[in-house]
Amino acid sequence: EVQKHSVHTLVFRSLKRTHDMFVADNAKPIPLDDESHKVKMAVKLRTEYGSVLHMPTLKENMREKGGPATGDPYGHKQYSGNQGQELEYMITGTHPYPSGPGVALTADTKIQRMPSESAAQSLAVALPASQTRLDANRTAAGVGEIYRHAGISERSQPPGMSVAMMEAGGNKNSALVAKKAPTMPKPQWHPPWKLYRVISGHLGWVRCIAVEPGNQWFVTGSADRTIKIWDLASGKLKLSLTGHISTVRGVIVSARSPYLFSCGEDKQVKCWDLEYNKVIRHYHGHLSAVYGLDLHPTIDVLVTCSRDSTARIWDVRTKASVHTLSGHTNAVATVKCQAAEPQIITGSHDTTIRLWDLVAGKTRVTLTNHKKSVRAVILHPRHYTFASGSPDNIKQWKFPDGNFIQNLSGHNAIINTLAVNSDGVLVSGADNGTMHLWDWRTGYNFQRVHAAVQPGSLDSESGIFACVFDQSESRLLTAEADKTIKVYKEDDTATEETHPVSWKPEIIKRKRF
Predict the structure, then answer these.
(1) What 3-state class would DSSP assign to 447?
(2) In residue terms, where are the WD repeats (predicted)?
């Protein structure tokens, strides 16, 4: 008769048997398989040193050393991907890896040799040994410099590690040296901003706002299809302009002529003469709603972006469409212009940002870091940098190639608008009515504001569609879903003692990518 045991007993017995079977090998290291170790090291080499595998190894250096580097840091036999053959190829155009900063491109230096993998292991990248140690120290191209010369973003380097040049017997070998993870520097103190005026008058959502160059008045566009001009000092209504047959989505005042430009969901782009308060030009061409517009600061060119996935460049005077910037695969939500290259920047619902060549009408760079729609882009007035806003993050970038600087995390909402002033105060306004204020340099979030909706509005009508600083940068204007314009100013009574920066360097760290 078979004795019946519970499942628990059977499982326990099975475990005990397994344990007894393997107890002799317990905690012993697994024997190393040479073949798999080679594969592992090859993968590791490619991953960690992939960006420098194409760097030149100088002929005279190789001769002095007697061929490729023979030392193996791992104590295993060498394996080479291209033994017995020398790969030579010509570099045309820009030479990405000079043998040192300031070294001219000559017939000798424009031929690069592919180093063998064994040479790449020890990264035998050195200046000619004939140079003095001092000169070598001063001019040797560090890997960080080569990244910059090649235009590769800093995010390519593994975080927390830096490649340092180590000196041994007059030759340079690169060794990985661990560095402390970078902590955020102490942010600059900014006084908090407070609400001091609420302007009502529109009968629909206020979708866009712009301040005129003389700082006397500002203009708003709304879902009630009107454009209203307000006195900046008093907040009183000066003028209403009608002509759009759908929501007005963008307004801008020209600094070069007495013109106001507007665009809307009716596919129309209008030029208003403010001496007669009449439309004098239409710019026809967009196939769907026009979501935003900007004027070039130095030439008479208007750029608009639309739900038809394009941005268009218009000659202000002749109304001709100079270029159609196509490439985005979804609605283009925002466009910005600047005098320096790249002269046009667009953000789109296809999650990408594109930097455009104005002359050729083609994309220079596409930035694909955002995971969600990019509804806002803002250029810093002094630095050669810009920021983009998306529900996943606010990201800062460096011109001209769009190199990533840092993330500003914490505004977990659909960010509709960004504004920045010369003091380095970045403002992000979101669909849920929240507004965050950041220190531009460090990415520190020093204030969060959620203003109450005007009486009679639903709480769900809390939303910021646009925000802008006035020309003096002492006032911040927001265009909101409760049909109001809210005006903020810095709190004059605040000091660093009354409103200290609650800053923890060991917690707040600059994120990469």
Answers:
(1) strand
(2) 199-240, 241-282, 283-324, 325-366, 408-448
